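#lab-general

N.A. 3:47 PM
ok so I finally got the sequence cleaned up, no stray characters, all 229 residues accounted for. can someone with queue access submit it? mine expired

B.Y. 3:52 PM
send it over

N.A. 3:53 PM
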Amino acid sequence: MSALLSLRLGDVALADVLDRLVTLARDELEGADEVSITLVRRDRPWTAAHTGDLALAADEMQYERGYGPCIDAGVSGTMLRVDDMRSETRWPDYAATVVARGVLASLSVPLPLQTDVVGALNCYARTTAAFAGDDQAGTATELADHIAVAVANAVAYADTAEYAGQMREAMAGRAVIEQAKGVIMAQNRCGADEAFDVLRRASMGRNVKLRTVAEALVQSVSTPATPGR
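B.Y. 4:20 PM
back already:
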């Protein structure tokens, strides 16, 4: 708990926070040899942090198939434990493959996220029944809560930044359209509505965006004339 409380989520990047959390999970979870964090957004899973190549390989084997405990735990919100991969029947193809890499047990704990991102904390072991005790599940759940806070804050920030970028782009588009309307009004001695209709017809006739037509028009009148012409 003291290690978790020492993490000031606002002071460091998300990747650094997640790296610290998976390392903490590996060190504190009895039986865990490697730990990773899977995130899924718009049906695309990826490993956001991992303690070693074994965890990354185990994750990616599931991504290749589109299923497995780490994906299913995140999507379903259900904790999934495998005590012995050699006899696992829920994901037999994945289990057989990951056993060959040395993974004999796993624990995937869903992240309690209220966004379009879901995910799981994944713990892998080279021994069977490594996560059979209640203590491991409780510790992993507590860690998953902290991971969810960090991820949710990052997603909210990213979405806000994306929205702000879209607004800036929209405002820039409106500005150049207004400039183009001014050019048309000056050239044709018409009103703003008529100028906009000229732009709209040009956009439809050329099958290009209105902003693209406006930018081309503004560029054509702002380009300096070549000397001697």
